[in-house]
Predict the structure of MtrB/PioB family decaheme-associated outer membrane protein.
Amino acid sequence: MLAVPGLAAAQAAAKASADDMDSDVKALVCPTNYLEAGILNASDSSNKFGEYNGINKSGLYGLGALNIQGGSGFCQKGGNLRWQVTGKDLGTTSRSAGASIEQQGKWSFGVNFDQLRHYTTTGYESPFLGSQGDNVFTLPSNFGIINKTAIANQPAGRQGGTQGLTATQLGAFNEHDVYNQRLNTSVTSSYQIDDNWSVKFDYNHLDMSGAKLIGAATDPLNLTALGGFNYGGEGVAILMNPTESTTDNLNVALNWVGQKAYASAEYYVSLYHDDYSGVSWTNPYVSTGVNGTAPLLATGKTGYPVSTMSTPPSNQFQQLKFTGGYIVSDKTKVVGSASVALNTQDDSYAGTYSPNSITGGSGGLATLPGLPVQSLDGEVIIWHADGRVTHQVTNKLGLNVGFTYDERDNNTSSNTYSFYDLGGKNRIVVNTPMSLRKADVDAGLDYRFDNAQHLHLGYEFEEINRWCKNALANNATGSSAPAGYYVDSSCVQSPDSAENRLVAKYNLNLLDSVSFNAGYTYADRRSTINQAFYNPIEAAGMEDFGFVAFYQASRRENLFKAGVNWQVTNAFSVGVDGRYTRDDYYDHTFGVQSGNSSSINIDAQYDISDNYSFGAYASWQNNSYNMLNTKGGTNASLPSGLPGNLAAEWGNSLSDHDVSFGVDGKQKLLNGKLRFNEDVSYSLGRSTYTTTNVNLPTQAAGTFGSPPDITSNMLQIRFVGAYQLNKASTISAGYIYQRLSSNDYFYNAYALGFTPVSTMPSNQVSPTYTQNIVFVTYRYSFL
């Protein structure tokens, strides 16, 4: 018999009078509807404060919300038809709304909409012409050129490059509010065919618009032979990379429920479409000339070369999935699922790379050699299966065994691509479409000594295999590798790894007032490392031989955690928990060597009476890791006696420290008609980065040490009061104070006069604001 959530409760409640119902049951059976409207005033403009809530400008905002439910299925009307209309944050750009109707146990239909705007920058400025959402950015016709060659021993403003922009160039800068916006529309429906069979349909349309900031580097173009400038590569511009795309998701499911089993078959499809192939911008950087000089070419063309980089390609994903479960007996249950999916991408390469044409004139100079194919023709088949058996051996002992299998079978072909990099060098690389297989097996034992003690012991095993399916990817070689380096044919650095994990957890309850828990996990991952693998980055001369990424490296992990909760009195309770993790990476020369994380959390609650309560909390967290690095290319320690050089090593360490604490309170006055809620919280975050000299004797003084800490601290005060005028009407008012102060030296590189000579200033600043919010709302409630 198919169980319909909520139907049994509604039918049972319909047999009793409303006065006899429990308040929680009554709220479900005969809910209170409401309409809410209000106004909010923000004292200051801040994109960071309004990052997600839509309150990014100073001034007034409308507030609106509603929840209206009706139909014969409510309030003991004896039917089973229900409908609902909802709305939240209707006056902001983080609004949502929905409507649904259902005949309980038979069919349902719903429509929902939500909007979320994400502001991503503070103080962004740019001389490029174009709005967010555009994919072509050009410079004003009178902007001229920028000589990216630094001029030594010159006073401020005359060092060359973007540190010495002319008055005309500075006048071209304009400030932009940069955000990306999500508009999400969904339709859901279901139909109960009979007691056993049902179907469900879900459709979701996601519309993304706006932009995100991205650092874009220019391509070189030598036009000196034509009487023009030698336009420089690797000149950086901070662009508004467009996020103009749509995603359509469809899921159709057929479900069956029996007395002892259930099964489901689902078809899911996701279609992603990007409106653009790439984003283009003009390149003003040259290696000769004077800032501001008009870019006039002897050929009669005027303007700038155009650089282009790709945006995410459109792609499709389809999946067929089966799930099911069976109750073998009162003590034994089996569940599992299996799926197969196809992911394809076949967008044309056209429009994704720099054509090196000249804006303002006809024609151009192409620098890209011929492509072997016109599109990737990507195809990935994804397999998945999982299952679990649980068995209650005795009233005290329980066992469970499970497995998970995932395979990403990449059938994309490999080809040899020839291109010019940002430095103007011709590179020849082979794309390496990697496949991956991961298998997990776990077993657990749960033993309950008595009502006060419980023990869990578990074992987990995970194996990962990586490979490429075609000979070209496995036999490619890099031009910068030392002689004898490629001793194996493989496209992957870690073809396989195996990890064993042991888990233990213990829970103890004492006198119904104290509960204690503790746990320990030990994990050991052993990875096979093939130092002689082919990497397209290595082919471009950037591979650090001996470096292994942390997620592929061998690692031992020890994790400890414990917590205690104490109900001191009926009114007062306190809880403390903490955890510590230590990771040690071994069997590789360069990369992350070790890391650790720890945290402690404390919270307390004091209920003086039904009308007065107070709470407090404090949290401390620390994370750190240590790395050993080497100078790029051939300076590295190579395995198996291969040639190398140990004279270029340094260490990095990064630590993050976070502390936060707060207090809150609730009060009820005038027989509950007047209520107050308040809370005060403070948080402080600090990141420390240090570089140490391991073996770099020729480096200049000042190369090593610690830059200023990156800090962020926030204070928030929130006070809200509500007064119930009568049974139907409530007025609420509140005040929110929020202050953020942060300091990040990374933003120095964005500031005018401090940027590297080949980086366009954007004048972004580390977020800092003080915001005062006052609001008042009126709610009308009715049945």
